[in-house]
Amino acid sequence: ADEPNTPAISAGKALIDGSDKPESPLSDADKEAVKDKVDTSNLPEGTTVTPADKVSGTPDNPVVLVTITYPDGTTDTIEVPVKQKDSMVYQPQLPSVTEVGNVNQLTDQEKEQVKAAFEKANPQLPAGTKIFVSDKGSLAVIFPDGSGFEIDGAYIVR
């Protein structure tokens, strides 16, 4: 089907929770993330998008093969590049507990101490990672790919 009805892939890679190594299985949630990368807006109604059950490609360029099935029964196979979310790759270590004056209202200096303790405990974080500390000492980490996590202040300050 080489008409203008060619499926397009939106920019960037599909971010998945599971491993992006070739032959790794894909969860249903990760298949949805892959499907979301396929722009079907210019395809005929009734077209289906079916991601493969596993990652293929190479370790340097992992992809998921996606079968596009048109209403007339013809199919196309496209490759959607995938990347495991930074938040799944970098499993954070809890920092040593920071002693603070008031666990409900950290000073700016105490917030800097908490941030420094977390960075010291996690030297492997990718460049561009943003770390935010709340007034109650909870920590929000945002990776360059936009994924992230939070850690409750109860584990971090006392």
Automatic annotation (TrEMBL):
Ranges for region Disordered: 1-58
Domain Atypical Rib: 91-157
Domain Rib: 32-83
The keyword Cell cycle is assigned to this record: no
Keyword DNA-binding carried by entry: no
Basic and acidic residues bias spans: 18-39
Ranges of biased composition (kind: Polar residues): 40-50
Pfam families associated with the record: aRib, Rib
Superkingdom of the organism of origin: Bacteria
Keywords from the UniProt entry: Signal
Gene3D superfamilies: 3.10.20.890
Record-given protein name: Uncharacterized protein
Organism lineage string: Bacteria, Bacillati, Bacillota, Bacilli, Lactobacillales
